[in-house]
Amino acid sequence: MVRYFTRLRVRRIYKWGGRPYIFDRKLKSYGFEYLNMSVEGQEAVTTVTPGQYILIEGNDDEYPFVAKLLKFFGDESHKQKKALVQWFLRLSEVPQNKKLLLGRSPHPQEIFYYLGRACDNEINAESILGTVHVQHVPEDTPFPEPGTKDTLYVKLSWDTKAFNVLDPVLMQDTPASTPPKPALPLFPPCASPTATPVSRGPVRRALPTPDPTVMRRAGSVSDTRATMSAGKRSTLEAESIHSASKLSASKILSAKRRGSAADTPGVRKKLQLSIGASPGKKMTRADVLCELLDEEMESEKVISLKLSSSVSHSLQHGCSLSPMRSVCKTPNGQRRFPWKLSSISLDRLSPTALGEQDFSRATTPSRRKESAMAIREPALGVLAEEDSEDSPMQPIALTPRSKRKSAQLVSLRIRKQLNLLDNTQELISDGDDDCFVPSKKDLQSSSDEEKTVSEEETRGRNCKTSVRTPHKTPSKKALQSSTDEEKSEEETVVRKTRGRNGKTSARTPCKTPSKKVTPSTPRHATPSIPSRTVPARQPGNILDEARARLHVSSVPESLPCREQEFQDIYNFVESKVMDGTGGCMYISGVPGTGKTATIHEVIRCLQHASDMDEIPTFRFIEINGMKMTDPHQAYVQILQKLTDQKVTADHAAALLEKRFSNPAPKKETTVLLVDELDLLWTRKQNVMYNLFDWPTRRHARLVVLTIANTMDLPERIMINRVASRLGLTRMSFQPYSFKQLQQIITSRLNKVKAFEEDALQLVSRKVAALSGDARRCLDICRRATEICEHSASHPSSTGLVRMSHVMEALDEMFSSSYITAIGCASLQEQLFLRAVIAEFRRLGLEEATFQQVFVQHRALSRVEGLQPISVSEGLAVCQRLGACRLLLLEASRLDMLQRVRLNVSQDDVLYALKAVRD
Amino acid sequence: MSHGQHYSERFCHQRLPEKPVGMESQHKHLLELLRRTAVHGESNSVLIVGPRGSGKTMLLNCVLRELLEVKDVNKNVLPVHLNGLLQTDDRIALKEITRQLNLENVVGDKVFGSFAENLAFLLEALKKGDRSSSRPVLFILDEFDLFAHHKNQTLLYNLLDVSQSAQAPVAVIGLTCRLDVLELLEKRVKSRFSHRQIHLLSSLSFIQYLDNVRSQLSLPQDFPDTKFYDEWNDSIKVRHFSSYPQLVDVLQRHYNSSKDFRSLHLLLMLALSRVSASKPAIKPTDLLEASRVCMVDSKANILHGLSILELCLIIAMKHLNDIYEGEPFNFQMVHNEFKKFLQRKSHSIHNFDKPVVMKAFEHLQQLELIKSMDSSTAKIQKEYQLMKLLLDHSQIMEALQKYPQCPTDVKQWAMSAFG
Lengths: 918, 419
Description:
The structure holds 2 protein chains of 2 kinds. By secondary structure, chain A is of the alpha/beta class.
């Protein structure tokens, strides 16, 4: 879809409509009959009544949340507008891992009845974007052919664990079930078109008026206008317009529908078909039903097959919603048919000339047809004929058949062109044409009826092709249409569809632009490291294998020795996720004690649990204070990980603030891991403040886990209001004991026998005594395997890492290099160190100037029988020692006056020097 | 190729030796480590520690050269060279890394994006890699200790963190001369460092040192002019050395002072520069002369260039130092001391005006033979600014001995116990 405006630019105004009634005396809440919403700057008002299906503002502009409105209520002041809803889910809202449970590819317009309890069914009424049409499709019935985009289909329900067949009762009865006031349709079944207060703009004009032709004209005009202006409008707006208009239409329909047995979608569809087949004009519902029932079995199946196959294609074009469905649903479809039928005859007469244009129209989404149809219904009988006259629909309607035979190959090419053509064609076509655009669905349905079951397959394709056809070159279409004419049998059906099409076309303009696929702007360069030409070699021998397993980066199967901490964190996060609340936790511990690893493990387990549907889904985000250049970058990173937006820090902070404080409905819990918390410190501490404040917001559903090294960080660096928000949920990871370290190594090695038992114990004891850092432990083991490998040539070696190897590794890593360095220093350097000590002893201080030391040095060299060195050389010696940090020196610009200190203890120096002499 | 060019390459570190001398085990360790990174994709971190001139860079370059000769490795590693003296903060370092890795946000030589974006980009890039499929990156951080002074040690943390997690394989190789480098690392950074250190501490004996000198001086076997090759290499045979005890003494002195190659190369370079077409062989005297140049005291050299007045002032300062035991002095004191000398003993030196003496005093300050003890901001009259002498007694006396035509009364004054 092309998004022209950002959501922010559309400001909607919500007003209660109808008389308030007291809903709950205690809470002083009032119920309302309906809600009027309008877009600022536009007169049109959409009315939303309980029982309708609504779109609710969500994170994704393109796919707002869907729900059924149960009731409205507000407080005394009427300021708060609330609504109770029954949620529906789109497939995209189902957790990724559960999508497979569906067991088939989803219909793009498919939604699921939500039976879970995790989502609050109370929403802010001001998050309502508009209304939408939802149709229940019985389990064994295929989805209707592509219709208008505004119609969504419910087939299954989702209880957070599995998809189940939806009990049709749920769909039908919901209005009645709303306690205070069952949502009554605003308009009685027979309501005159003028009664619908809802639609605005083009829709309004399209509303049924006594004179159908006028109406249609108006509609078409508005349509074209709409198409032109569509570019400017935000999609949302456009959507809401559609939905609004549809709403009104659907309301009428539903009102009429009520009580009729034909409610179930399947039946409705059949209704249409049967009606199409039966040329008779106005029938009573009962009659229709009877007919329908007869034909049901056959036709339904056929249709469904075609429909399902065609759905995907139609979507591409932006005509995703099939007008047929909407038509079918309404039990009063019968009424429409008559006039359509009559129109057909006329259509035939003027087939070719208009055909081309019509084709082009045909691409326009079919939803419009729906709404248009619905609007017209009341006047149908009267108008039908005129309509048909005006609209040269035949060619279009016929096209599908011709297609079957001839155009399958072409269709492929056409498909590609479709997107482009859609727009242009619409713009070019004049108002009248707009009215009569045949919808793909219509085509399909007509074709269905015509052909026998044996042709099902081809039909499926045809449907697709027919949809495409409009974009093709006019000449072809004309040909097709002519061929179509020959077949007279099912023309009635065709006519019907045409009739609908004409109406729908009124809608077309608005929809089309939104459906188009935006050329994806080339995103930023993808960060990646070039891949290697030769794949990495796998570990060859046992020591290699052990080394790979001991690398810190290898993720162990389980985290031993942190069971208690794991359980605590798990419980904490799980409870928050279950309750849908927020909270903070502070975790401290010296480096290498498994803090981050434990949390990752917890998250893995929780993800698994949520996959198993034991807990609601949640989202995990991780930031690290060390991995950002500035504390405020935290906002940017969080936002980017949440929504994939790239904005500046300030803007990100604002957006996050909004996100976490606004009562956006149906938010999943976010688990945020903040590693190296201390680096997020700023003078005002606003980053930390926000991080800890958000979870306390009512709607945030944010769990913040923070990690730092020191236990008393909150007390030391946080100001009171920050520390207070962090709360007292704290946990401290103790350094590992030697037994734990040993267990860690053993579990990592996992039966790879590379170490002697004693060697392992030595490593773990040594590390536990020094730091308890598991990383150190693993690194030493790794180094020991290397040493073992190098010494493997020795005949005595067993191939196992022994004590001696570990000792060597420990020596390498932990022994101070100072003593070796002194031992390897040149004679003058050693002498200088002795001079330093001598001077220190003389002064009784731990500090002397170079000048003083140099005097000693000279004296010492005389004692040693060495030629005394010059001052320059002496300084050079001193600087070398300083560069190694055996000595600590002042800045060298002080020259001879720079002060000298030892960086090693005097005893070490003497010990090292003594060793050299011996 | 002339032998001159050959030596200049050898002594100016433009060419790697065939084999690093005296560091075989370290060489093996490092080569093995990098080979595992390159071939197996194992992430590692290592520090090469050794005093300046001990051959850290040479060792690493030898290892890299050897590594890249392996066929599998050749096109499979991405070396990134950083130097703490060039990349003085993380922002610059990140740009440089991105540029050398030639990531996708690089156009030409320019790296786009802010500091934060660059960091995020690099981390993302490294994160996307995995052990078996991405090319190993070798981060070579020269003057590693300077990177530890960057703010928060962000770069080190991230590089070492990558080396300890299952991301693109990296090897972080730090070169430093500081033995206490680990203490510079922040505790989180330190924990992520593998604590492998390769120490280059030469325990060269004097005999080995002499061998080194010879091998450094000898021409390579593939030298085109065989006659010259024979003559030259013959001239630096052992017997020549041992027949010159002076020469051995000089070399011993150098050995005592420092064992590193860089100072040796300096000495040999100076000696070789005395070889010419008319004198096509290196003589022991050349080495002696070179050594003399190397060992000379720089300050004594400066003193030779001073005027008599300035020298007198220095002597006055020396006396003041003796009297006050190293306490600072000011111009007025020096001037008084100088005037005393003039009144009592001087025969050869005129009385200088005070401004002239002041000028000489300032010149000494400019030469940094004396240093002001006050902070420069303090507004004290020049005459009373406290100063300290940056010269040793021995330097002054030595300079006086060698000073051309130094008046005897000045010499006597310098040597007398008290002004």
